[in-house]
Structures are given as structure tokens and as C-alpha cells.
Amino acid sequence: MHLERLNYNKIKIFLTLDDLVDRGLTKEDIWKDSLKWHQLFHEMLEEASDEFGVDIYGTVAVEVFSMQAQGMVMIVTMEEQIEGDEEEELQDGFVDLQIDIGECENILYEIDDFENVINLAKRLKTVHLPESCLISKDGRFYLFVPCLDREDEPKVFAILAEYGTLSLKSIHVLLEYGNPIFRENAIFELNQYFN
């Protein structure tokens, strides 16, 4: 589990499939609104509270994004602090959940060296990825892959996992502070120049 504070009242939590399996959960348990899921959620809130020094109580909005074969990202937004008597009412230990579940539209993979990027492109040559983008930052390479066709998903994710790891960085930060190598058609362009 990876925690990241996005701003004063918003936290991002990344859970891998291994994190879920270790706790005896599947992604489907979220849909069922199970007791196990609620226990995990409260554990995550306690850990976030300890790590970031915030009191989490009252209404909490949760956006859950399924990351296909990798796990899920949850964005937890806490209600702003309330003054006076209302605050005391909210400190009774209950958390009101508002959950919005969606599928992740884009995937970002981090790859250690350029040789692996070239080999990855060769393996993905048969898959049409016109909106793929390759960016370099701090000696690492990031391949941005748009939402895939359902039939290509398992194959592409399996190949990507062989050459890199799912990145928690934002594509917008990488575009702003990184060095775009190919802004579009990255797989096609890599194969044109190197394979």
C-alpha cells in the first residue's frame, strides 16, 4: 500500500492486487460492500491519519479507480473542518462513505533503461497504440498507454509488466518537467527507428 497526500484534505492510496490478496480481499469485494472491505478502509484511514497527522472524521468521499491487472487507486477527500458543536457530533468515530467506482482510462509504466523500452516496443509492435507517449525524467523512461480494447488488455498488461512497473506519477507532471521523446505513436516510432 502506498499513501500520498495530494493537498490539505485529499489523500491518494494505491493498493496492488497483492495488498488485497494479503488481506483476503478481491476487487469484487468493493462492489459487495463487505465487512472485510470496511475494515480495510478503516485501517487505511488510520494509517493515513498517523502518517500525515490529520484527523479523519465526518463525511469522506472516496473515488476508486480500477487499474486493470495492477490493483486500484483510491482518492479520499475529507470534509473541511467544522467549528463548534457540529465538530463534536462528528467525532463519534463514524465515517460516512460516498464511493464512486470507475475504470482507469490511462496507464503509465516506468521503465529502467532505454534498451528495455526498445525491447518492449518490439513486443508491442502488433498492438495499435496511436496515443502512446514516451517521456524521460531523472534517468527513467515512462510509457503512457491509453485505455485499451478489452481483447488487447491482458496481452498488453502482461508485456508491460515484463519490462516495467506501474508508475504512481502523474502524466501531467511528467509532461511538464520531463523530456518527451515521442508525444504520440511512441510504439510505432520506436519500432521505426530502432527495430
Q: Strand share of the residues?
A: 25-35%
Computed structural class = alpha+beta
> How many beta strands in the DSSP annotation?
10
Number of discrete domains: 2
The largest sheet, given as strand count, sense and whether it forms a barrel, is: 5 strands, mixed
InterPro entries: MecA_C_sf, Neg-reg_MecA
Pfam families: MecA (PF05389)
Subunit structure: Homodimer.
Family: Belongs to the MecA family.
Task: Give a concise summary.
This protein is an alpha+beta fold and 195 residues long. The chain has 8 helices and 10 strands.
What would your notes on this structure say?
It holds the Pfam family MecA. α5 packs antiparallel against α6 and α5 (114-123) packs across α8. The strands form two sheets. Strands 1-2-4-3-5 form a five-stranded mixed sheet. Strands 9-6-8-7-10 form a five-stranded antiparallel sheet, with helices on both faces. The protein contains eight helices and ten strands. With 195 residues, it is α+β, with helices and mostly antiparallel strands. The two termini are 37 Å apart. The protein folds into two domains: 2-103, no CATH class; 107-194, Alpha-Beta Plaits. Helices cover 37% and strands 31% of the residues.
